[in-house]
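re: that chain from earlier
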Amino acid sequence: MAASKIQALWNHPAGPKTIHFWAPTFKWGISIANIADFSKPPEKISYPQQIAVTFTGVIWTRYSTVIVPKNWNLFSVNVAMAGTGIYQLARKIRQDYFDEAKEAVLKE
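^ sequence. v structure.
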């Protein structure tokens, strides 16, 4: 049974014998790098970079559900990209706008 599932994956139109498998697999590197940047101070986060990561994730998540055959590897990596991008943007916005408001209240 396990052999038949492996064979089905191997022969799938978006399986390891195609670029449709390897492109999203290597794209995981971007999401992993973004996760590694969670420990980076928020002032070092780039708005344009994180906006691009977020929108790329959202757009390609949608696309991966429309194409035939459905590419679940592409779907999952783009959900991860959008999620990490949103998290990084939230950290940056919180630091840039909400910490300043707290500091202004504390100074008064």
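The mean pLDDT is 90.
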